[in-house]
Cobalamin synthesis protein CobG (Mesorhizobium japonicum), 498 residues
Amino acid sequence: MNAFSRRGACPALSAPMQTGDGLLVRLNAVYVGLSPKLSIGLAESALRHGNGIMEVTARGSLQIRGLTRESAALLAAEVDALGIAVRTGVPVETGPLAGIDPREIADPRPLAERIRAAVEEAGLTPRLGPKVSVVVDGGGQLTLDAVTADVRLKALRSGAGVRWQVSVAGDGQSARLLVAAEDHAARDVTVAVLRMVAEKGREAHARDLSERQLVSLAGWHSVAPPSVLPDISPTRGEISSFAAGSLSETMPHVSAPGVGETGGAGIISPLVGEMSGRTEGGASRKPIGLFPIAGDTFTLGIGLPYGSMPADKIIDLAQSAVTLGTSEIRLAPGRALLFLGQPSAANQSLQTIAAALGFVTSPSDPRTRIAACPGTPACASGRIATRTIAETIAAENADTLDFTLHISGCAKGCAHPGPAALTIVGGENGAGLVVNATAKALPAGYRPGYDAARGIGRVAAVIRSARFQGETAAACLTRLGPAAIAEAYRQAQTKKRK
């Protein structure tokens, strides 16, 4: 399998990945944002060299689809000519408002930069897989709680100062807590975790570390200087007590389930939590709407439906932003764009224009609860018209979509790799319905692909009739159970609403 077809790789600008609609490249831009004019230039390049579809991922990266080997090289040259800074190396991610959010606990950028430098100095980049990542979250209005990572650092207030909570293997809810430390110690623990992962090979992640290794990390009371850290033996799962530096409290009073272990009654898994209506598994505020920055200055978040938009519509929106005085456009985790610098009076006009173009301008928009890949006809791997199905479901069942619905053109599940409350997946037998699992699971029922939206409409009708007062649709789904949900989906007719 060559570099253009290996699944599980990160399709960076220099290493496109083959997908069902051609080559895909991903631009992991540093959070300094782009001017609207640069955004227009990038979208125009995507139109010239790809199929005109641009995406913002759940992690806040930009994807350009439908490229060929030749056009991918031309795109890379044009991105370079535009002077757009593209992140390389192990991803160390900070939030889209890092450093400018008045509500954040600490600016995460200095620590993130020190971690990047330490990772490079230790020579870990070529030894780690392309999807190994680190998150440094300073808190504030747009957290990174919903983003999974091998290592997570979250700012905590500690008296008059700040400590960083270091966790591994998960999102803001599911990650395993290790320690709370000052920034230098937190950096060194992060590098030690990555070194252990690298020792296990390029296919490894932090979730593959042994319980003994995790306990040794959590029990660290001192941290070696960077020159000593390479001598740590991850295969032994032990870390000696070094003389230099003091690691702050190890928080023994906090318990968390180990990797591959079952937590206690107080732990809610992301999927079970969503199905019960209690949590969404690391859910944080959606990056859509207005976010105060300073005084009467606001950042405006505008979402891409299902994370995707034609490049010409992105150009239209960016041109309007130029006219309205926007100085910067940033990518945001959660499949959105943030518009900064425009006068506050311009935000309503920009929202109105975005809505007319088909963008998502309200965090309550039902499309924010649907994950849908390109599907047919855009992707050759797709078996169903995912976006058409998604639009119909969003328009007809907005009152019941308080859970994640995944619509996948095939069993790869590219748009939502994790489990979802309900997943429609295209296959040889039509549109299958998977309950409480991923797109790779065996569907509980089928109906023709063209009729999938009607099947979900029937499920929604059952929810409306069976839901108790005050009960969420997600909780009702849990109570009904997979068999009843699948039966409702398979039924040929949807009851007419009164």
